Amino acid sequence: MKRLFVLLLLCGLVTSGRAREVFPLNEGWRFFFKTERTSDNARNVTLPHSWNTDPRALGYWLETTGNYQNTIFLPLEWASKRIFLKFYGVQSVADLFVNGSYVGSHRGAATAFTFEITDKVRFGADNGLLVVVSNSYRDDVLPTSTDMNLYGGIFRDVELIATEPTAISPLYFGSDGVLVHPRSVDGERAEGEIEVHITSKQESNCMLNIQIENSEGRTVFARRQKVHIEDEPVMVPFAIENPELWASEHPSLYSVTASIGEDSICDRVTVRTGFRNLAVSTSGGMMINNTHTPVHGVTLYHDNALSGGTLTDEDYDADLAQIRTLGANALRSAVMPHGQHLYDRCDELGMLVWVDIPMHHSEFFGDMAYYATPEFEENGLTQLREIIAQNINHPSVLMWGIFSCLPTRGDDVTPYIRRLNDAAHEMDPSRPTVACSNQDGSINFVTDLIVWLQTVGWSRGSTDDLAIWQRQMWKNWSHLRSAIAYGGPGFIGHKSYSVQSDPRRNWMPEEKQTRFHEEYARNLQNDSLFWGVWIDNMFDYGSARRPYGVNGEGLVTLNRRDFKDAYYLYKAMWNREEPTLYLAGKRRTLRAEGKQCFSIYSSEGMPQLIVGTDTVAVTEYAACQYRSDSVEMKGGVVGVKASVGELTDSMTIRVGNVLRSKSYPGLPQKADPQKTN
Fold it and tell me: Which CATH number belongs to the domain containing residue 309 in this structure?
């Protein structure tokens, strides 16, 4: 029945014209593990799919190899066409077979890739597809060090593309084959080149047509030229007078259409883009269209509790809505790129984006993030080029991330970082490169921009030491174009009933995370050295390598249900459209000490605080942060209420009468049955 459904759709597409046809190929797949040795018990699955989030799979974390099979019927009428398969993401290594013949391999977890299968298919007959997928560790496929779960599987969409013999190539690093290169952009004129990749099985020349339309559908540029088809792409210069510039507050978009044909069109591809200029300086920070734009960003990983890594368009929309409610104007695609839908929405909404390549090192000391082998280095360069080719048209994408937290021990990785940096500039000179670093040394002077991952006051020292580090930065490194990133884990289920330090291993209460963010926000509030502040992370994410199976650094839990205290701190600071008033510490309902202080986040000025029946003095601690005087409280249940204007927030706590374990201070004990009546 599945094959018949595919047949009817494909036959319907044949009658619609000579231009390319694109058919979604997400249904009809059968999945089984390689270790099963037979497909007799293969499960029917719909893409996107991962074996680590499939409830019908084995039920525990697997790094293994899986097989995906499908059968497609190609109409006899398509015998003169060229057939391509495009995969938008397979984690992490994919080998494609068609009718038992090997087609090709792709190595990389989060970039699209396309194979031509014309010579391997039979028209007017069934065709068998087999994709062998592995998420097992490889030292020649980046990333080789991450605590982020690589769930495995065909975790994004698959398409079948049918074109005429002469077509705009879908084979160029998994892109659409049309890349827009702005060279000079201001309010009076936007100039650049359009790079078009053309492939042909029959012709050596063709007519190429370029058309650019603004957001209202009006043609602002058109060109028609005869081109010679060769291995090199065709570069078409363009100019637009008085362009509508793309900016966060006004994200104007243009459509660029490349078509082939003189009397009739045999292929057509349309991409969206936007025009803006970007500059980052040590004195002026980030300037977009000559307007100072402070960056308030969050790091976004590739996970949620329901979908795992198989994120859908709806998942991206929901995450982006929460990021915008926080008030952030930027997001970082950590470790690797997200799906295209996320960047399409960022284009439309004016979000700023930093996209990483998988040159990443986790905090696990034994991991090796760099292997000085030709295979490793070539894979990194290939993934970099794929990421740029597939995302270059997005005006929201401001920078290419070259590496993250690489250690400087062992082999010197700096020469390879320079190769990556040079490759990025060669392919896209319009965007700066960036790196996130927690190390000293020459590695920090390669990329155009540097983001310092700072953890002082978390596992070592005090948060007050951040001010010392800032003074050193001003004195010695103010010539660098720097931003800062920081964060720490906090689990809402890890409750401390006492302010005494808790000796339990892997004990990460939410209030520790809260205080860390409060102090960093206070120290950074008036510092003009940094062009941006990046919070690690927006959401918790799955990490099978960690004690609880989760990296808890997010401002929001993995299931997106619970917003941690620190979320409301940044919402008060960053969201100027929606007023915020929030009493921190609501989940600490049991408190051992009689003396208590309260923290309040307010975007509307000084709040009033009532504890029990008493009004308590409140002082401004930092921007949008207010703290109460120490309040002596009697044991029992106490209501706490904050208010400012029409906003109110409240909580109820129980003070005292909390027995503490000798082994675990702050942990309630069971009552002694010998002492009860």
Answer: 3.20.20.80
| Alpha-carbon span 642 to 583, nearest angstrom | 7
Over the range 250-274, which residues count as b (16 or more CB within 10 Å of their CB) and which as e? ebbbbebbbbbbeeebbbbbebbbb
Residue 658 has a CB neighbour count (10 Å cut-off) of 17
Q: What is the mean pLDDT of residues 184-203?
A: 96
Exposure of 45 in the CB half-sphere (CA atoms within 13 A): 27
Final residue of a domain: which of 113, 142, 167?
Answer: 167
Q: According to the model, what pLDDT value does residue 55 have?
A: 60
So what's the pLDDT on residue 184?
A: 97
Q: Three-state DSSP class for 160?
A: strand
Q: In this structure, how many other beta carbons lie within 10 angstroms of the beta carbon of residue 124? A: 11
| Residue 499 counted as domain residue | no
Token pair in block for residue 496: 């401390």
Assign 413 to helix, strand or coil: coil
Cis before 438? omega within 30? no
Within this chain, do residues 243 and 315 fall inside the same structural domain, yes or no? no
Task: Indicate whether 479 and 405 sit together in one domain.
Answer: yes
Q: What is the spatial distance between Cα 268 and Cα 402, in angstroms, rounded to a whole number? A: 33
Report d(CA 411, CA 111) in Å as an integer.
27
- In 55-165, DSSP assigns E strands to 65-74, 82-87, 93-98, 101-107, 113-116, 125-134, 158-163
What would the mean pLDDT of 157-166 be, rounded to a whole number? 98
Q: Which of 578, 596, 615 is the last residue of a domain?
A: 578
Label residues 16-36 b or e (16+ Cβ within 10 Å = b).
Answer: eeebbbeeebbebbbbbbeee
Comparing CA positions, the residue from 611, 596, 608, 568 lying closest to residue 656 is: 596
Q: 429 and 402, same structural domain? A: yes
What does the alpha-carbon distance between residue 510 and residue 494 come to, in Å, rounded to a whole number? 7
- In angstroms, the CA 663 to CA 25 distance is 58
**CA 541 to CA 549: how far, in whole Å?**
9
Asked whether the whole model's pTM tops 0.85, one would answer yes
Residue 331, domain member (yes or no): yes
Give the whole-angstrom CA distance, residue 387 versus residue 89.
12
CA–CA separation, 466 and 473 (whole Å): 10
Find the CATH number of the domain harbouring 239. Answer: 2.60.40.10
What letter would DSSP give residue 233? P
Q: How many folded domains does the chain comprise?
A: 4
Query: Within 13 Å, how many C-alpha atoms sit on residue 16's CB side?
Result: 13
CA pair distance 61, 211, nearest whole angstrom:
49
Instruction: Indicate whether 219 and 318 sit together in one domain.
Output: no
Statement to judge: residues 17 and 151 lie in one domain: yes
Class of residue 409 by CB neighbours under 10 A (exposed 0-12, middle 13-18, buried 19+): exposed
Same domain, 599 and 476: no
Q: State residue 502's pLDDT score.
A: 61
Let me know whether 188 and 267 are in one domain: yes
Give the structural domain span for 653: 579-677
427 and 548, same domain (yes or no):
yes
pLDDT digits (tens, 9 = 90+) for 254-269: 999 999 999 899 999 9
Residue 418: partners with Cβ closer than 8 Å, 6 or more residues away: 446
Q: Chain centroid to CA 391: how far?
A: 13
Pairwise CA distance, residues 270 & 235, whole Å: 16
